[in-house]
Design brief:
By secondary structure, this protein is an alpha+beta fold. The chain contains 8 helices and 30 strands. The strands form 6 sheets. The protein has a 6-stranded mixed β-sheet, sandwiched between helices. The protein has a 5-stranded antiparallel β-sheet with strand order 13-12-11-14-20. A 5-stranded antiparallel β-sheet has the order 15-19-16-17-18, with no helix packed on it. The longest helix has 18 residues. It is globular.
């Protein structure tokens, strides 16, 4: 990897059917770098890749290649090639002719074509396969033919859109290492799209974690895993214990009913935060040797470690250790200050603050929902401020709901799932024991009797 920026994305915005898919993406990609866009389905990673490739154009923002603006440049004029999940090989052609296809379109000399194709087949470990029909190859071999066909044109950047998704687990792991070797040998930029955390951590120089059309964090695999910037990244990358806490002051945090020393600073005093402790960073000790203790609820052998669930005063902790404990035993949990990671909450407030309007006598409308309040005493068209507690929103079936909303985020907090949903341009926070599928619609029901109505802007408690 060099310090030279080969691709720069500047304030990229892309909408689909009026809904934002990318919301102001800014990113610099360096020459000879292996970059992975990582995130759940619908986060915008493939859209970003397609914009770089020229298959779609941004609604606003700019794409620079080697310092030159390429917004309107068609795909065939960009110095990039793409490998898709479906390899799109030509079944009637053999391996050699598949790889040589682009070179023949360029009308290169036959000797040059022959030289380039044979070099590329050797690089992807397919030497001697040139006369084989592609339908006689395994999935991994077909994938390497697709990569060879893309690389034989000597692009400066190779785009890979989940190219390992159709392979079985063993072959996928082998190809992860193979791709990294190819990238290092050829010294060109690879931009890779996946939702698989292991792929991203295995191959990448830089990981770009995305959610809802926004970049959440950019860093090395080590940075992303060890120092996640928020609970979404911590939850998405590997396994984590994510607990609600309060930052008492610099280097002192309270969670699970106890105060702990940490190494984080700059959060202010008595600020609500998310606390992350990785399962492998927790030691099981004698009950009396720790202030945090609980009862072992389950033990599962995972091959290289035991995974245990431990109930600590109502919060469920996941612990991974080479040492096992007996189900039902009382144990202590211990971790070092630098194993505690503090981060700002995804949702900035403890309550939901919304705007409403009086639409009829004793009737208020907000988010397309209407409810009545006796003796409201406010004229029609009066704007009001509404405060709704997270505990007054529950998940229900869509046919029994007050509103169908889009589930943006769900993070397990040890005793409940924390939901952040999106509707009518607003976000709502609430807690539930339900498990739901992120990036889908769910139904919610609101306890209207507990909504606080005010004409005055509420003091928003963080």
């Amino acid at each position: 990897m060099s310090d030279k920026t080969i691709i720069k994305l500047e304030n990229l915005v892309f909408n689909y059917d009026g809904e934002p898919v990318l919301d102001g993406i800014n990113l610099s990609i360096h020459d000879k770098e292996f970059v992975t866009f990582l995130g759940p389905s619908g986060c915008g990673k493939t859209t970003t890749l397609r914009i770089i490739g020229g298959f779609i154009y941004p609604h606003s923002g700019n794409v620079y290649f080697d310092g030159k603006l390429i917004n309107e440049l068609p795909p065939h004029k960009r110095e990039v090639n793409t490998v898709f999940q479906r390899y799109a090989l030509f079944p009637h052609l053999n391996v050699f002719d598949n790889v040589a296809f682009g070179l023949k379109l360029k009308k290169l000399d036959k000797r040059e074509i022959n030289k380039r194709v044979k070099e590329m087949l050797e690089i992807v470990n397919l030497k001697g396969f040139d006369k084989r029909k592609v339908n006689q190859l395994s999935g991994g071999q077909q994938q390497r033919v697709a990569i060879a066909r893309a690389l034989v044109n000597h692009p400066k950047v190779l785009l890979l859109d989940e190219p390992l998704g159709a392979l079985d687990l063993k072959l996928r792991k082998e190809m992860q290492l193979e791709l990294k070797k190819i990238q290092q040998r050829l010294e060109i930029t690879f931009i890779y799209v996946t939702h698989d955390q292991e792929e991203a951590l295995t191959m990448s120089d830089t990981v770009v974690v995305m959610k809802d059309g926004e970049i959440q964090q950019v860093g090395t695999p080590q940075d992303i895993y060890n120092e996640p910037t928020n609970a979404f990244v911590a939850d998405f990358i590997g396994e984590s214990n994510i607990i609600d806490g309060v930052m008492i002051k610099d280097c002192l945090v309270s969670f699970n009913g106890h105060e702990f020393e940490c190494v984080d600073t700059g959060f202010g005093e008595n600020q609500p935060v998310d606390v992350v402790v990785r399962p492998e960073d927790i030691d099981i000790v004698a009950y009396e040797d720790s202030k945090l203790h609980g009862e072992v609820e389950s033990v599962v052998f995972k091959g290289v470690h035991y995974e245990m669930t431990i109930d600590c005063e109502g919060l469920k902790w996941t612990v991974q250790s080479t040492d096992s404990a007996q189900i039902g035993s009382k144990v202590g949990l211990k971790f070092d200050p630098f194993d505690i990671h503090i981060m700002k909450k995804l949702f900035p407030y403890a309550e939901n603050y919304l705007k409403g309007v009086v639409v009829e006598e004793n009737t208020i409308e907000f988010l397309g929902i209407r409810f009545e309040r006796e003796n409201l005493g406010l004229p029609v068209d009066t704007e009001v401020n509404l405060t709704i507690s997270p505990k007054d929103i529950e998940v229900v079936s869509e046919d029994h709901s007050d509103k169908i909303v889009y589930l943006e985020s769900m993070i397990y907090k040890g005793a409940y799932n924390e939901f952040i949903v999106y509707t009518e341009g607003e976000q709502l926070l609430f807690h539930s024991q339900n498990d739901e599928q992120v990036a889908t619609d769910i139904g919610i029901k609101i306890n209207f009797d507990n909504i606080v109505i005010s004409l005055k802007e509420p003091e928003k408690e963080e």
